[in-house]
Write a structure and sequence with these properties.
Strand content: 5-15%
Helix content: 40-55%
Number of helices: 12
Strand order of the largest sheet: 1-6-5-8-3
Largest sheet: 5 strands, antiparallel
Distance between the termini: 45 Å
CATH superfamily of the largest domain: Jelly Rolls
Number of domains: 2
Length: 313
């Protein structure tokens, strides 16, 4: 077990803080360590001491293009200082400045392809239209467990999601943008940021279930999740794996249709959730937000993976 995790598990928070500070002295720019230190400070009842570091880290993530990660950090700050409102404005400005500098059309991820989410499969599309052979599916040997009830606060007792090695810290970070944010004005972006909730899931937890009603959209900020659909034989087949920055669930929140796949956490995960009630409240004063969501979904609704699986003999 990681020494810091071991200390946290034993509630030896002062020793964990000192160990993390020593690690940060060697790797001062490692965002995982900076977030880990803030989380342990919060556990130790020293939340105010963590705020400055979280503010700086949120600014850095937003300026580097990691908008969803920056917002997840903001949600930690809000739990410590609930009445604080200046951080959303600052993050919105930094996110928009990064969008203006970023190459490529809005609504696309790295490489120019719309970022794939959970509910962007098109069952009516020609599964071989791209000319590529169908992927070999991964059969899920066990049916997904019932949907877990996520916690509204991060499970800081288990810090695996921010643990890293010196090799990891030295490696370049891929820019994981969430193009959804590119379509909003400053005021709209602030409204959406304020409406998002931070949830956590552990490996094996089910985020959404195929066929169930859906009333939320999600942005994956930390970790990895797997998407499964049922094939013609009723078996759960893996059709995709989603990484940090992935956005999913907008079909259900836009149309009321049931979920088209089951999504399970492959690792410890953090997600930002926007539920329908909050979205409806936002769109009453900012109707353009709904238009952006619809355009964003249409730009991504070209994937045929589910069609490939459903049409297998």
């Amino acid at each position: 077990m990681d020494p810091v995790q071991d200390l946290v598990a034993r509630k030896s928070y002062p020793k964990a803080v000192e160990l993390l500070k020593a690690q940060l002295a060697r790797r001062p720019n490692d965002p995982r360590l900076r977030l880990k230190l803030a989380d342990v400070l919060i556990l130790a009842g020293r939340g105010q001491e963590a705020v400055g570091g979280l503010m700086a880290l949120a600014d850095a993530e937003a300026a580097d293009g990691f908008a969803a990660k920056a917002i997840a950090i903001l949600k930690r700050i809000e739990k410590i200082e609930p009445g604080r409102r200046d951080v959303e404005e600052r993050l919105a400005r930094l996110i928009q400045e990064k969008v203006r500098r970023a190459p490529g059309p809005a609504g696309t991820a790295a490489g120019g392809r719309p970022e794939l989410g959970l509910e962007e499969f098109d069952p009516s599309a020609d599964p071989l239209a791209s000319g590529a052979p169908p992927p070999e599916p991964e059969i899920n040997p066990d049916p997904p467990a019932p949907v877990a009830t996520p916690t509204a606060d991060p499970d800081l007792e288990d810090l695996a999601y921010v643990a890293g090695t010196e090799t990891d810290a030295a490696a370049p970070r891929a820019v994981v943008s969430t193009p959804l944010f590119e379509g909003f004005s400053r005021d709209e972006l602030v409204a959406v940021i304020r409406g998002l909730k931070l949830l956590t899931f552990e490996p094996g937890d089910v985020l959404v279930t195929e066929g169930a009603p859906g009333g939320s959209l999600f942005i994956l900020t930390t970790g990895t999740v797997k998407a499964f659909v049922k094939d013609a034989r009723g078996e759960s087949v893996k059709v995709h794996e989603l990484g940090e920055g992935s956005f999913f669930g907008e079909i259900s929140i836009l149309t009321g249709k049931p979920r088209t796949a089951t999504l399970t956490a492959a690792t410890s995960c953090e997600v930002l959730e926007l539920d329908k009630a909050t979205l409806d409240s936002i769109t009453r004063s900012h109707p353009h937000v709904l238009e952006v969501l619809k355009r964003f979904h249409e730009a991504r609704a070209q994937d045929t993976v589910e069609a490939i699986i459903r049409n297998r003999p």
